[in-house]
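Dear support,

I submitted the protein below through the web form. The confirmation email said the job was done, but the results page showed an empty box. After a refresh the structure appeared. I'm attaching both so you can tell me whether what I see now is the final result or a partial one.
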Amino acid sequence: MASNPQNAALEGCRQRLTTYQEVDKERTQLLTVRQIRLCLSPRSFVVVLIDADADDYIFHARFLNKHALGGGEAADELYARIGGYLSILQLNPEDTDIIVRAYANFKSLSKACIAKKKMKNDVSISTVAQGFSQRRSLFDFVDVGSGKDEADNKIRGL
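What the results page shows now:
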């Protein structure tokens, strides 16, 4: 029996549809494999530890006197500078988690900053620290309380 041209065209469409479905299935499987590899691949990170205990030289008045807003701006500037340094090291800052931990005795740091006229009397270091810590999810500014070398001990412990 001779083949009808319509049947032949219909059979050709079926074959193309089957081929398309097979290719689409392979593409989906390949995407799934890529997603799994991406999830399993370790992400680069860098940890910056800061002993800020009464070392007021690392604090700028332009940040301190803006309270929480200044703390956030300080976090942004530090993040940008760390990212710049990572670029020099040929690491992609976009693919690298930047973790910052700053440790200080807030009471003595506050006294030092006020004595050196870097901070007004009405500014609270804890408010600045809150702004710093809240700006970026991996940034923390921690009050270690009073006691000799408490910030040093925290850093040594890491």
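Response: this is the final, complete result; the empty box was a page-load delay. The mean pLDDT is 82.
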